[in-house]
Design a protein that fits this description.
453 residues, alpha/beta, inorganic pyrophosphatase (n-terminal core), Diaminopimelate Epimerase, Chain A, domain 1, Nucleotidyltransferase, domain 5, 3 domains, six-stranded parallel sheet, six-stranded mixed sheet, 18 strands, globular, binds manganese (II) ion
Length: 453
């Protein structure tokens, strides 16, 4: 019988002779550092690990010494077959890439799922305990902090290259011990690593002071083009693909850029949009944890933490930026309205549909018990006769009804130039998300059809 928690993961790690350590695609310092540290721990125990990173080690971490072979595909393992597949820093198994997901679904003939134990060490609040054995602590600053705890429980000192890999995980996920997730426990672990010999100056030289001139130029160009929104509380930066191409850079050159944007005075949320292809954009959101950007990323099917989250959208980058900015502004507006006791009470009792009508169009949200269950954006324009000049509340009400009931096809919304998100069924107690409330400068157009706020 499998169980969860640190002791269960420890016994899985100790008893497996061959462990495949797996982390997410486009790995950050926490992911790679945790893999390296675990490989060293497992070698200390006298066993034989491998590291699987589908997209390899990024350039900015190429200085890190790998203690065991690194593979990008399961075929590269050859005759070596794992007894344990150990996920680190993966909020869900899909983050590890398609091949590992297929293994987890039992679709890899070479690695039969039922003969192999899967374990999961992570600190993402969204982690669904997807493995056989799970150790998930959202309060932890970095997955590497959990790996350090494991090493110490096994009596392995956080010294040498193990200490360095763990120090990397802590520095990476706390922004050099500066974000809100920097805890006393995390600093105490860093202190133990330094007292066992880590040279912080040399570490920083390897990890941070290694910029190319092209990367400096890219950041200079991007920083000269940032825009401010929401009375200066939101900063936005858009990176067209050609900026990277023109300087011969890849996306590694943008590592930490989103976090860096928060340095601007008065900014509470940084939004960074990277063009990944025609009509494909990757968004990154950063805050100091006081604005939960994970909620905003989740609107677009993404994930992350309160202070750092991301998502991918099938839109050109400028349009993606506009949409997320609108969602940020709508979220602020929604929170403001939800502070009203009468609205909060309604939202808890039966769920409500909240509308914001402004010169550019309509935003609608389905809210139940302070949670968003849907988000709809329709622009006013020639396609949509909700144009203020010939405003048609009846038409809008029809669309909202379909949205509320989950019958509004995404394609239809796209032809109107809008965006819809309704990821799950509404809870039965929500009683259908009535009544309607309207606010915003053009709320009067809904007079007689919704309560005007
Ligand atoms: Mn992490």
């Amino acid at each position: 019988m499998m169980s969860d928690g640190p002791a269960a993961v420890e016994s899985a790690v100790v008893s497996a002779r061959r462990t495949l350590i797996v982390s997410h695609v486009n790995p950050d310092g926490d992911a790679v550092g945790s893999c390296v540290a675990l490989a060293r721990i497992i070698q200390e125990l006298g066993n034989d690990p491998r590291i699987f990173l589908q997209s390899g080690v990024p350039d900015f971490l190429s200085w890190l010494a790998l203690p065991s072979p690194l593979v990008h595909t399961l075929a590269e393992l050859g005759e070596w077959k794992p007894e344990l597949v150990l996920f680190v820093d993966c909020g869900d198994m899909h983050r590890a890439g398609e091949e590992i997901s297929a293994f987890m679904r039992g679709e890899n003939a070479r690695m039969p799922r039922k003969e192999i134990v899967a374990a999961n060490i992570d600190h993402h609040a969204s982690n669904l305990n997807f493995a056989d054995v799970n150790w998930v602590e959202p309060e932890c600053s970095a997955t590497g902090e959990l790996v350090g705890i494991l090493a110490e429980k096994l009596g392995i000192p956080l010294a040498g290259e193990l200490g360095e890999a763990l120090y990397l995980t802590l520095v990476s996920d706390t922004g050099g011990f500066s974000y809100a997730n920097t805890s006393a426990d995390c600093l105490a672990m860093a202190s133990r690593i330094v007292s066992l010999g880590l040279d912080v100056g040399r570490f920083t030289t390897k990890y941070e002071n290694n910029w190319t001139l092209a990367r400096m130029h890219l950041w200079g160009r991007l920083l000269s083009e940032i825009s401010l929104h929401e009375q200066g509380s939101v900063v936005c930066s858009v990176v067209p693909k050609r900026y990277l191409q023109e300087l011969g850079l890849n996306k590694d050159a943008l590592e930490d850029y989103a976090s860096w944007l928060r340095k601007l005075r008065g900014v509470r949320v940084a939004l960074f949009v990277r063009e990944d292809g025609p009509s494909r954009a990757k968004i990154s959101l950063r805050s100091m944890g006081d604005v939960n950007v994970h909620e905003v990323a989740a609107l677009f099917g993404g994930g992350g933490h309160a202070g750092a989250a991301g998502a991918e959208l099938n839109l050109p980058p400028r349009e993606a930026a506009d949409l997320v900015l609108e969602a940020l502004s709508f979220r602020a507006f929604t929170l403001e309205l939800m502070a009203r006791p009468d609205l909060a009470d309604r939202s808890f009792r039966q769920g409500i549909t909240l509308l914001s009508l402004h010169a550019r169009g309509v935003l609608a949200a389905l809210i139940f018990k302070d949670r968003l269950f849907g988000f709809l954006r329709l622009p006013f324009g020639p396609e949509f006769p909700g144009d203020p000049d010939g405003f048609a509340p009846a038409l809008l009400l029809g669309i909202l009804e379909d949205f509320r009931l989950g019958w509004l096809p995404r394609e239809k919304v796209c032809t109107l130039g809008g965006y819809v998100w309704r990821p799950e069924e509404l809870p039965a107690e929500a009683e259908g998300f009535v009544p309607l409330f309207a606010a915003g400068p053009l709320a009067q157009y809904m007079h007689g059809h919704a309560r005007i706020l």
